[in-house]
Amino acid sequence: MQTSLTTYARIALAVYVLALAVVLFQPTPEIASGTVLGVDDLLVRFGFPEAWVAPGRVEFVLNALMFAPVPFLGAWVFPGLRWTDWVAYTFLASSAVELTQGVLLSARSAQFVDIVANTLGGVIGAGVIAIVVALLPGAAWLPRQRT
Q1: CA distances (Å), 39 to each of 35, 50, 99, 132, 145, in order?
Q2: What is the pLDDT of residues 8-27, one digit of tens each?
């Protein structure tokens, strides 16, 4: 059972990282900006106060959520990594993305706050899988992580 889950996790991780790369390395920020504005509008329509769902706050939360699946799925593909390793890798990857956007993509901008949000997403994804593994230690379908 673990082997088939590992295979599915590898496929899901590869597809997710590819989709993430498409969004992050777009020469212009239309996909990202449009998503932020669309979610902002949706939250306002659902009655959230506009002060809570300002576009900058929505962008921060979406950036965090965008990176959370990577360590979550990665735990099955690379079970030897600790949650702290995933946080470090998320920070490094996010820094590389922002550097690339700032240096090579003239219509994009590099922002430190994006590195913070993306790293927080790594903390969330790694934390969720660490908590699930701790709460269900005998479950055969869970990855075996180092602590």
Answers
A1: 6, 12, 26, 29, 35
A2: 999 999 999 999 999 999 99
Q: Which amino acid, one-letter code, is at 70?
A: V
pLDDT of residue 76: 87
Question: Cβ neighbours of residue 140 under 8 Å, at least 6 residues apart?
Answer: 1, 2
pLDDT, tens digit, for every residue of 84-117?
999 999 999 999 999 999 999 999 989 999 999 9
Return phi, psi of residue 111, to 5°: -135, 130
DSSP 54: -
Instruction: State the sign of the Cα–Cα–Cα–Cα dihedral 146, 86, 17, 129.
Output: positive
